Amino acid sequence: MRKLMLISVLLIGAWVSVNNPYSSTYVTGLKSEIIPASGNGNSLLSEIEKKAKDYEVEPSNARLDPVWKAIPGYNGLSVDVDKSFAKMKKSGEFNPEKLVYKQIQPDVHLRDLPPSAIYKGHPEKPMVSFIINVAWGNEYLSGMLATLKEHNVSASFFLEGRWVKNNPGMAKIIAEAGHEIGNHSFTHPNMKQLSAPEINEEIKRTNDVIEAVTGVQTRWFAPPSGYYKEEVVKIAAAHKLGTVMWSVDTIDWQKPTPEKLLSRVMGKVHNGAMILMHPTESTANSLDQLITLIKEKDLQIGTVSDMLSENRIMSKKMKE
Q: How many whole angstroms separate alpha carbon 273 and alpha carbon 248?
Protein backbone atom coordinates (compact mmCIF):
# COMPACT_ATOMS: atom_id res chain seq x y z
CA MET A 1 0.00 0.00 0.00
CA ARG A 2 2.82 2.40 0.94
CA LYS A 3 4.63 1.50 -2.32
CA LEU A 4 1.48 2.29 -4.33
CA MET A 5 1.11 5.69 -2.62
CA LEU A 6 4.78 6.53 -3.35
CA ILE A 7 4.35 5.74 -7.07
CA SER A 8 1.22 7.92 -7.17
CA VAL A 9 3.05 10.87 -5.60
CA LEU A 10 5.92 10.55 -8.10
CA LEU A 11 3.54 10.44 -11.07
CA ILE A 12 1.64 13.52 -9.84
CA GLY A 13 4.94 15.40 -9.31
CA ALA A 14 6.13 14.54 -12.79
CA TRP A 15 2.83 15.71 -14.31
CA VAL A 16 2.99 19.02 -12.44
CA SER A 17 6.63 19.70 -13.41
CA VAL A 18 5.92 19.13 -17.10
CA ASN A 19 2.66 21.05 -17.26
CA ASN A 20 3.43 24.09 -15.11
CA PRO A 21 3.74 27.41 -17.05
CA TYR A 22 7.43 27.89 -16.17
CA SER A 23 8.41 24.52 -17.68
CA SER A 24 6.32 25.22 -20.76
CA THR A 25 8.06 28.58 -21.27
CA TYR A 26 11.51 26.99 -20.86
CA VAL A 27 10.81 24.23 -23.37
CA THR A 28 9.39 26.75 -25.86
CA GLY A 29 12.55 28.86 -25.49
CA LEU A 30 14.77 25.86 -26.18
CA LYS A 31 12.81 25.04 -29.33
CA SER A 32 13.22 28.59 -30.66
CA GLU A 33 17.03 28.33 -30.42
CA ILE A 34 17.29 25.11 -32.42
CA ILE A 35 18.45 25.60 -36.03
CA PRO A 36 16.64 23.09 -38.22
CA ALA A 37 18.85 20.51 -39.94
CA SER A 38 16.94 20.74 -43.21
CA GLY A 39 15.19 23.48 -45.14
CA ASN A 40 11.73 22.13 -44.34
CA GLY A 41 11.53 23.90 -40.98
CA ASN A 42 13.17 27.18 -41.85
CA SER A 43 12.13 29.48 -44.68
CA LEU A 44 15.57 31.11 -45.11
CA LEU A 45 17.41 27.80 -45.21
CA SER A 46 14.80 26.47 -47.59
CA GLU A 47 15.22 29.53 -49.83
CA ILE A 48 19.02 29.13 -49.94
CA GLU A 49 18.67 25.45 -50.82
CA LYS A 50 16.12 26.26 -53.52
CA LYS A 51 18.12 29.10 -55.11
CA ALA A 52 21.57 27.48 -54.82
CA LYS A 53 21.24 25.86 -58.25
CA ASP A 54 20.82 29.28 -59.88
CA TYR A 55 24.28 30.34 -58.68
CA GLU A 56 26.20 27.16 -59.41
CA VAL A 57 28.80 27.02 -62.22
CA GLU A 58 29.64 23.78 -63.97
CA PRO A 59 33.34 22.79 -64.00
CA SER A 60 35.09 22.87 -67.37
CA ASN A 61 37.04 19.81 -68.50
CA ALA A 62 40.55 19.97 -69.92
CA ARG A 63 40.43 19.46 -73.67
CA LEU A 64 42.43 19.39 -76.88
CA ASP A 65 41.86 22.30 -79.23
CA PRO A 66 42.75 21.99 -82.95
CA VAL A 67 44.58 25.34 -82.83
CA TRP A 68 45.66 25.94 -79.24
CA LYS A 69 46.43 22.30 -78.41
CA ALA A 70 45.93 21.42 -74.71
CA ILE A 71 43.59 23.70 -72.75
CA PRO A 72 43.49 23.17 -68.96
CA GLY A 73 40.27 22.58 -67.06
CA TYR A 74 38.69 25.05 -64.67
CA ASN A 75 36.90 24.36 -61.40
CA GLY A 76 33.19 24.97 -61.11
CA LEU A 77 31.29 26.39 -58.15
CA SER A 78 28.58 25.09 -55.85
CA VAL A 79 26.93 26.90 -52.95
CA ASP A 80 27.92 25.88 -49.43
CA VAL A 81 24.40 25.98 -47.97
CA ASP A 82 25.38 25.70 -44.29
CA LYS A 83 28.00 28.47 -44.42
CA SER A 84 25.73 30.69 -46.50
CA PHE A 85 22.92 30.23 -43.96
CA ALA A 86 25.30 31.09 -41.12
CA LYS A 87 26.13 34.41 -42.84
CA MET A 88 22.48 35.29 -43.51
CA LYS A 89 20.70 34.05 -40.39
CA LYS A 90 21.26 37.29 -38.43
CA SER A 91 19.33 39.35 -40.98
CA GLY A 92 16.97 36.49 -41.75
CA GLU A 93 16.92 37.49 -45.43
CA PHE A 94 18.37 35.88 -48.53
CA ASN A 95 21.30 37.90 -49.89
CA PRO A 96 23.20 36.57 -52.93
CA GLU A 97 26.24 38.65 -51.94
CA LYS A 98 26.55 36.55 -48.78
CA LEU A 99 26.58 33.21 -50.56
CA VAL A 100 29.64 31.09 -49.78
CA TYR A 101 30.98 28.81 -52.50
CA LYS A 102 33.10 25.71 -52.75
CA GLN A 103 35.04 24.65 -55.83
CA ILE A 104 34.11 21.55 -57.84
CA GLN A 105 36.82 19.83 -59.87
CA PRO A 106 36.24 18.82 -63.50
CA ASP A 107 36.20 15.19 -64.60
CA VAL A 108 39.02 15.56 -67.15
CA HIS A 109 42.40 17.07 -66.19
CA LEU A 110 45.46 18.08 -68.21
CA ARG A 111 47.20 14.93 -67.02
CA ASP A 112 44.43 12.85 -68.61
CA LEU A 113 45.11 14.24 -72.09
CA PRO A 114 47.69 12.84 -74.50
CA PRO A 115 51.00 14.81 -74.37
CA SER A 116 50.44 18.10 -76.17
CA ALA A 117 51.91 21.60 -76.12
CA ILE A 118 50.11 24.26 -74.07
CA TYR A 119 49.84 27.79 -75.44
CA LYS A 120 47.52 29.41 -72.92
CA GLY A 121 45.41 28.91 -69.82
CA HIS A 122 41.66 28.49 -69.52
CA PRO A 123 39.79 31.35 -71.28
CA GLU A 124 37.63 32.04 -68.21
CA LYS A 125 40.52 32.37 -65.76
CA PRO A 126 41.44 36.05 -65.25
CA MET A 127 45.16 35.43 -64.92
CA VAL A 128 48.25 35.80 -67.10
CA SER A 129 51.74 34.37 -66.77
CA PHE A 130 55.17 35.78 -67.63
CA ILE A 131 57.40 33.25 -69.38
CA ILE A 132 60.95 34.60 -69.10
CA ASN A 133 63.43 32.57 -71.14
CA VAL A 134 67.00 33.00 -69.94
CA ALA A 135 70.10 32.06 -71.93
CA TRP A 136 71.73 35.53 -71.84
CA GLY A 137 70.93 39.07 -70.63
CA ASN A 138 72.43 38.91 -67.12
CA GLU A 139 72.82 42.70 -67.00
CA TYR A 140 69.03 43.16 -66.94
CA LEU A 141 68.01 40.33 -64.64
CA SER A 142 68.60 42.13 -61.33
CA GLY A 143 66.42 45.07 -62.38
CA MET A 144 63.63 42.78 -63.56
CA LEU A 145 63.76 40.79 -60.33
CA ALA A 146 63.54 44.02 -58.33
CA THR A 147 60.48 45.16 -60.32
CA LEU A 148 58.74 41.81 -59.87
CA LYS A 149 59.41 41.94 -56.13
CA GLU A 150 58.10 45.50 -55.89
CA HIS A 151 54.80 44.40 -57.43
CA ASN A 152 54.71 41.08 -55.52
CA VAL A 153 54.58 39.16 -58.81
CA SER A 154 55.88 35.64 -59.34
CA ALA A 155 57.03 34.69 -62.85
CA SER A 156 58.23 31.51 -64.54
CA PHE A 157 61.90 31.63 -65.54
CA PHE A 158 62.90 29.01 -68.09
CA LEU A 159 66.64 28.54 -67.74
CA GLU A 160 69.07 27.15 -70.29
CA GLY A 161 71.15 24.42 -68.64
CA ARG A 162 74.43 25.81 -69.93
CA TRP A 163 73.52 29.23 -68.52
CA VAL A 164 72.75 27.70 -65.10
CA LYS A 165 76.11 25.93 -65.12
CA ASN A 166 77.91 29.21 -65.85
CA ASN A 167 75.74 31.39 -63.57
CA PRO A 168 74.81 29.28 -60.53
CA GLY A 169 74.61 32.28 -58.23
CA MET A 170 72.03 34.09 -60.36
CA ALA A 171 70.05 30.88 -60.83
CA LYS A 172 69.87 30.50 -57.04
CA ILE A 173 68.76 34.13 -56.63
CA ILE A 174 65.88 33.60 -59.06
CA ALA A 175 64.76 30.43 -57.28
CA GLU A 176 65.15 31.91 -53.78
CA ALA A 177 63.03 34.92 -54.83
CA GLY A 178 60.12 32.49 -55.16
CA HIS A 179 59.90 32.37 -58.93
CA GLU A 180 59.12 29.18 -60.80
CA ILE A 181 62.03 27.52 -62.59
CA GLY A 182 61.53 25.74 -65.90
CA ASN A 183 63.65 23.79 -68.39
CA HIS A 184 64.82 25.63 -71.54
CA SER A 185 67.15 22.92 -72.95
CA PHE A 186 70.90 22.74 -72.34
CA THR A 187 72.43 24.32 -75.44
CA HIS A 188 69.46 26.20 -76.96
CA PRO A 189 69.22 24.08 -80.13
CA ASN A 190 66.42 23.78 -82.66
CA MET A 191 64.68 20.87 -80.96
CA LYS A 192 62.81 20.10 -84.17
CA GLN A 193 66.04 18.98 -85.83
CA LEU A 194 67.30 16.68 -83.06
CA SER A 195 67.11 12.91 -82.82
CA ALA A 196 65.27 11.27 -79.93
CA PRO A 197 68.49 10.57 -77.95
CA GLU A 198 69.62 14.18 -78.47
CA ILE A 199 66.25 15.55 -77.32
CA ASN A 200 66.40 13.34 -74.24
CA GLU A 201 69.94 14.50 -73.45
CA GLU A 202 69.06 18.20 -73.77
CA ILE A 203 66.14 17.86 -71.38
CA LYS A 204 67.80 15.52 -68.89
CA ARG A 205 71.07 17.48 -68.58
CA THR A 206 69.13 20.69 -67.92
CA ASN A 207 66.92 19.06 -65.29
CA ASP A 208 70.01 17.67 -63.58
CA VAL A 209 71.95 20.95 -63.45
CA ILE A 210 68.91 22.96 -62.31
CA GLU A 211 68.24 20.53 -59.48
CA ALA A 212 71.92 20.39 -58.51
CA VAL A 213 72.22 24.19 -58.35
CA THR A 214 68.79 25.25 -57.03
CA GLY A 215 67.27 22.09 -55.57
CA VAL A 216 64.25 22.58 -57.84
CA GLN A 217 62.62 19.76 -59.80
CA THR A 218 61.18 21.38 -62.90
CA ARG A 219 57.60 20.83 -64.09
CA TRP A 220 57.63 22.59 -67.45
CA PHE A 221 59.71 22.65 -70.62
CA ALA A 222 59.89 25.61 -73.04
CA PRO A 223 61.48 24.73 -76.41
CA PRO A 224 64.07 27.31 -77.55
CA SER A 225 62.61 29.71 -80.14
CA GLY A 226 59.37 27.71 -80.00
CA TYR A 227 60.70 24.96 -82.28
CA TYR A 228 59.37 21.51 -81.45
CA LYS A 229 57.84 18.37 -82.91
CA GLU A 230 55.52 15.84 -81.31
CA GLU A 231 58.49 13.67 -80.37
CA VAL A 232 59.86 16.53 -78.26
CA VAL A 233 56.56 16.82 -76.38
CA LYS A 234 56.43 13.08 -75.74
CA ILE A 235 60.02 12.89 -74.50
CA ALA A 236 59.43 15.90 -72.23
CA ALA A 237 56.32 14.12 -70.88
CA ALA A 238 58.45 11.05 -70.16
CA HIS A 239 60.51 13.34 -67.90
CA LYS A 240 57.22 14.47 -66.27
CA LEU A 241 57.42 17.87 -67.96
CA GLY A 242 54.61 19.69 -69.71
CA THR A 243 55.62 21.57 -72.87
CA VAL A 244 54.62 25.25 -72.84
CA MET A 245 54.63 27.84 -75.59
CA TRP A 246 53.04 31.32 -75.50
CA SER A 247 50.02 33.23 -76.79
CA VAL A 248 51.47 36.78 -76.53
CA ASP A 249 55.01 37.66 -77.62
CA THR A 250 56.85 40.82 -76.57
CA ILE A 251 59.33 40.26 -79.46
CA ASP A 252 61.71 42.06 -77.11
CA TRP A 253 64.79 40.71 -78.93
CA GLN A 254 64.01 43.25 -81.66
CA LYS A 255 64.71 46.00 -79.10
CA PRO A 256 61.35 47.79 -79.34
CA THR A 257 60.74 51.01 -77.44
CA PRO A 258 58.80 50.60 -74.19
CA GLU A 259 55.80 52.24 -75.86
CA LYS A 260 55.83 49.74 -78.72
CA LEU A 261 56.30 46.76 -76.42
CA LEU A 262 53.44 47.86 -74.18
CA SER A 263 51.15 48.47 -77.14
CA ARG A 264 52.01 45.07 -78.60
CA VAL A 265 51.27 43.18 -75.37
CA MET A 266 48.24 45.11 -74.18
CA GLY A 267 46.64 44.89 -77.61
CA LYS A 268 46.67 41.09 -77.39
CA VAL A 269 46.51 40.29 -73.67
CA HIS A 270 43.63 38.02 -72.65
CA ASN A 271 42.45 35.65 -69.92
CA GLY A 272 44.99 32.84 -69.70
CA ALA A 273 47.67 34.65 -71.70
CA MET A 274 51.20 33.30 -71.52
CA ILE A 275 53.43 36.28 -72.26
CA LEU A 276 56.89 35.51 -73.64
CA MET A 277 59.81 37.75 -72.70
CA HIS A 278 63.56 37.72 -72.16
CA PRO A 279 65.96 39.68 -69.92
CA THR A 280 66.39 42.52 -72.42
CA GLU A 281 66.69 46.28 -72.00
CA SER A 282 63.27 46.75 -73.64
CA THR A 283 61.53 44.40 -71.20
CA ALA A 284 63.45 45.72 -68.17
CA ASN A 285 62.36 49.28 -69.02
CA SER A 286 58.73 48.27 -69.71
CA LEU A 287 58.08 45.76 -66.94
CA ASP A 288 56.89 48.16 -64.23
CA GLN A 289 54.24 49.78 -66.43
CA LEU A 290 53.32 46.46 -68.03
CA ILE A 291 52.47 44.95 -64.65
CA THR A 292 50.44 48.02 -63.72
CA LEU A 293 48.45 47.97 -66.97
CA ILE A 294 47.73 44.25 -66.70
CA LYS A 295 46.48 44.60 -63.12
CA GLU A 296 44.28 47.53 -64.18
CA LYS A 297 42.48 45.07 -66.47
CA ASP A 298 41.65 42.99 -63.36
CA LEU A 299 44.02 40.23 -64.43
CA GLN A 300 46.16 38.48 -61.85
CA ILE A 301 49.75 37.60 -62.69
CA GLY A 302 51.02 34.19 -61.61
CA THR A 303 53.39 31.41 -62.52
CA VAL A 304 52.70 28.92 -65.29
CA SER A 305 51.74 26.36 -62.63
CA ASP A 306 49.34 28.84 -61.00
CA MET A 307 47.67 29.68 -64.26
CA LEU A 308 47.40 26.16 -65.63
CA SER A 309 45.97 24.84 -62.38
CA GLU A 310 42.21 24.28 -62.21
CA ASN A 311 41.89 26.53 -59.15
CA ARG A 312 39.25 29.14 -59.75
CA ILE A 313 39.98 32.83 -59.10
CA MET A 314 37.56 33.73 -56.30
CA SER A 315 36.93 36.96 -54.43
CA LYS A 316 37.41 37.03 -50.68
CA LYS A 317 33.64 37.36 -50.17
CA MET A 318 32.93 34.16 -52.07
CA LYS A 319 35.26 32.15 -49.82
CA GLU A 320 34.28 33.51 -46.39
A: 6
